[in-house]
Amino acid sequence: MAQPEKKGGLLRKSSASKKPLKEKVVLMYDEIFTTEDPSKSSPRFWEELFLMKVNLEYLEGKLEALDGEELMKIKDNINCLFQHCIQALGEEHPIRVVNALQTLCALIRGVHQKNKSTSGFDIINMLVGFDKAELCMKNLMESLDSLLCAEGSESLKSLCLKLLLCLVTVTDNISQNTILEYVMINSIFEAILQILSSPLSRREHGYDAVVLLALLVNYRKYESVNPYIVKLSIVDDEATLNGMGLVIAQALSEYNRQYKDKEEEHQTGFFSALTNMVGSMFIADADEKISVQTNEAILLALYEAVHLNRNFITVLAQSHPEMGLMTTPTSPIPTTPVTPLGTTPPSSDVISSAELPLDADVQTSNLLITFLKYSSIVMQDTKDEHRLHSGKLCLIILTCIAEDQYANAFLHDDNMNFRVNLHRMPMRHRKKAADKNLPCRPLVCAVLDLMVEFIVTHMMKEFPMDLYVRCIQIVHKLLCYQKKCRVRLHYTWRELWSALINLLKFLMSNETVLLAKHNIFTLALMVVNLFNMFITYGDTFLPTPSSYDELYYEIIRMHQNFDNLYSMVLRLSTNAGQWKEPASKVTHALVNIRAIINHFNPKIESYAAVNHISQLSEDQVLEVVRSNYDTLTLKLQDGLDQYERYSEQHKEAAFFKELVRSISINVRKNLAFNTLSQELLLKEFSTIS
Q1: Helix (H), strand (E) at residue 561
Q2: Which residue intervals define the domain Armadillo-like helical in the entry (predicted)?
Q3: I want to staple 559 with a disulfide (CB 3.0 to 4.6 A). Which of 288, 413, 435, 597 is the partner?
Q4: Residue 655, Cα to own-chain centre: how many angstroms?
Q5: Any long-range contacts for 574-583 (C-beta under 8 Å, 24+ apart)?
Q6: What span, in angstroms and rounded, lies between the C-alpha atoms of 163 and 482?
C-alpha cells in the first residue's frame, strides 16, 4: 500500500481518513509516547530518529489525540525529544537538521493545541521543563541564529524562520507567550537584518523576516523594554533599510496587482454587461464584488518602521529599479490561496516591470506611491472589519509621515514629481478619471487626493467617525508644514474645500442619527478650523493671490451651509444638554467665516442691483471680493497651526493589541499551508549519502 501523499505544508494535517502506515519513524514515535525512556532499549534511538523522514501529520496528530493527563505522563519523553532536536541542530548532516527543525515545529504546534486555554508557562514546562528551559532555549536560539547567518542552504533558513514564526504565534496574544522571553534575551535581530540586507536572502526569506520582526516588536511593548524596539529604532544601515522597504513594497504591490486583475476581470464580466444594459444603478453593488484580502501583517511592519525609525523615512521616496529586474527564483514556490489578513508571502517576482512605471517612459515607482495606491483600495470599503482595520492603519501611517519634517520635505519637493494613479470608488454622479490625464505633481498632492477621495466617498449611515477625524488631522498637519515653510503648493484646493463643505452638510442633514453615536462637533470644529487656517494664513501658502480669492468665493457661494451650521450649533450651545460645550466651540470658531459672509453678501447684492444683473458670474463675484478686502475685519485666532502629536501608547494601544492578535492567529494558521514540503527540502540534500 502506497503512502498517502503529503501536502506541501510543513505542519499540514492529513486530509485523508486512512490510517497512517506503521513505517519505522511511526514506530519510533509510538515508543516516545510511552512512559518508558526509548533509549534504554535502543541506545542509538535518538541518533537514528533524526535520520528518518519526519511524519509531521502523525506526530502532531498523536499529540493532539492525548488528553492533558496522558500528556503529563509522557512529559519526560517530550522534554527529551525537544532537547535532542536542539542538539541535532548543531549537526553537520543537513538532513538531521531539517528533521530536527520540522520535529520542533510539530512539537510546538501539537503541545499548543493541548494548551490553548493555558499560559505560556505550561507550554514551556511541557516542551522543555522549567529546570532546563533557560539553557535549552539559549541553545535553540543560538543554533537558529547560526543557521540564519550561515552561507548554507536557503531551505534551512526558510525552515528556521517558519519555526520562529511558529514559536512566536503559539498563543493568540503574543504578549502572553512566555516563550518569547527567551527570544528577547537571545536576540535574533541581527540575523533578521542580515537577511534583509542581502538580495538573495531577501528574495527568498524577506517576507517571513519582516513579519517576524513586526510581531517581535509587539511583544509586551507597553509593559517592558523590548530589545527589538530599541534596536529597530536605531538601525541606520542603508542596505538593510532599503531591503526592508523592498519587501514591504513587493507585498503591497502584489496586492495592488491582484486588485487590478480582479477589477479588469470584473469590468469585462457579467456585471459590466448588466450595467451597460440597464444603466449605472448597479455600479456600487457590482464593485463590492471586487475583493482581495488585505495584508495587515506587512502593513504593521511598515507602520513599525515608519513610527520607530526616522531613517526609514528616506526609504519611502527611494526608487526601486530592483523591483523591475526580479526573476523567478530557481527553487519552486508553492502556490497557495491568499488567506485573511494577507499572511501569504508574495512570490519573489511579484513586481513586474508593469508596476514600476506609472508611465513607462517617465518614471519609476517608490514605496510611498505603492502604499498610497494600496491605501486607496483598502479605504474604499470600510464595512468589512479587516478593511476597516487596514484603513485605520493606513491613516495612522500617513499621520506619522505627515508629522515628520524630512518626509514633508520630499512630499513637497517640486523636483520630485510623480503621476500617482489612485483607485477611485465608482460613483453614479462622477465619471471615471482617465489615467492618462494625470498630471505630474509633488507626492503631497496624491496624499491630499487620497484624503479628499475618502471624505467624498464615506458619508454613509455607518459613519466611520474615527477615520474621518484622522483624515482631517492629516490634511491639517500638511497645511501646518506648508504654512511654517511657506510652501506654495499648486494643488486644486477647490476640490478639498468643496469636499469639506459637503461633509459639514452631511453632518447637519444627519444630526439626529449621528449624535446618537458620535460627537459630531469635534469633527465639525476640525473642518471649520481648516477653513480658518486657509483664511488666516492662506496668503502664505496658497499658490497665487487668485487662489485666496477663490477661497472666499467658495465660502460665499456655499454660505447657506455655514449659516445652517451656525444655527445648529447656536441652538445646541444655548441649551443645557450634553452638547452645550462642544457646540459652543464651533460657534466661536465660525466667527471669521460669518464675518466674510456678512461682509461680502451685501456688497454682492448691491453690485447686482446697481448693474441690473440677476445672476452674477464667478468673475463678477471675484471682482467684488477683490475690491472689498480692505474694509473686511477678521479676528486673529490662536493655535490654528498647532496640533497634538501622534502617540501610540496612550491612544492606540487597544487597537494594536487586537490587530496583532488577529495577525498572530492568521500567521499560525497559514504556516500549515505555506511552508515547504519535506520532499522539496530533502531533494536539495539528495546528493548527501
Answers
A1: helix 559-573
A2: 435-671
A3: 597
A4: 13
A5: 579/515, 579/519, 579/521, 582/519, 582/521, 582/522, 582/525, 583/521
A6: 48
